[in-house]
Design goal:
binds S-adenosylmethionine, seven-stranded mixed beta sheet, globular
Length: about 200
């Protein structure tokens, strides 16, 4: 039920996924091998698949989300391999991916450092990762403003604001916490930028 609610809610922000996919595609070579860690309904993967000749995989721990995302990809007529698995123990060989994205999910991981180490392991040397997630110090005012722009109906607006306040902010990380965790993975370089209510963390192996 939560998966369906999230799918419908984020479906109102398709333009945002499309923008992120376009930005990503600009930086990808033809034929790049791409992973989304925790894709949920799969909107980013599907939008990216429409833009070029990439091999795209989505790995999510939820069987329900894998089912929803696979169905949405089939409806959109694109090929994305959505599969079930844990970000902290990925079922992929070392040095597999050119690029990976993890959006709005990292704060949910039970073993976040393990997940970072796995991201590093499965990227090719020179490969790049991007984590986009909420900042713990985002103000409720800025969150309310963000939710207002999501195109939600009044009830979902209230529910979404409540979810941010009661759950998401509690599990979000500070810049210092990210720095501490990233130091335990083996990336060649990392860069943490504030972006709206979140961080964008770029990592290069
Ligand atoms: C809020 S959704 C974000 C979905 C998508 N990335 C987006 O931007 O809309 C969080 C996702 O993280 C997944 N997830 C949570 N823990 C995970 C783990 N350890 N490994 C893989 N996926 C996980 C959930 O099943 C869910 O699909």
């Amino acid at each position: 039920m939560v998966a369906k609610w999230y799918t419908t809610n984020t479906g109102q922000s398709l333009a945002e996924f499309s923008k992120l996919a376009q930005r990503t595609a600009h930086q990808l070579a033809r034929g790049s091998v791409v992973l989304e860690v925790a894709p949920g309904p799969g909107y980013f993967c599907i939008e990216l698949a429409k833009l070029g000749d990439y091999t795209i995989t989505g790995l999510d721990i939820s069987h329900t989300f894998v089912e929803i995302a696979s169905k949405k990809a089939a409806e959109a007529g694109v090929l994305v391999n959505f599969r079930q698995g844990n970000a902290s123990a990925m079922p992929f060989a070392d040095n597999t991916f050119d690029f990976l994205l993890c959006r709005a999910a990292f704060k949910n991981f039970g073993q976040p450092v393990r997940a970072l180490q796995e991201m590093c392991r499965v990227l090719k040397p020179g490969g790049r990762g991007l984590i986009i997630d909420l900042r713990k110090d985002a103000s409720m005012e800025s969150i309310n403003h963000e939710v207002e722009g999501m195109g939600l109906n009044p009830i979902n607006k209230i529910l979404t604001k409540l979810t941010f306040r009661t759950m998401l902010l509690k599990s979000a990380y500070t810049r210092e916490q990210f720095q501490h965790m990233l130091a335990q993975a083996n990336f060649r370089s990392v860069d943490i930028q504030e972006a709206g209510i979140g961080f964008e963390i770029s990592m290069t192996k």
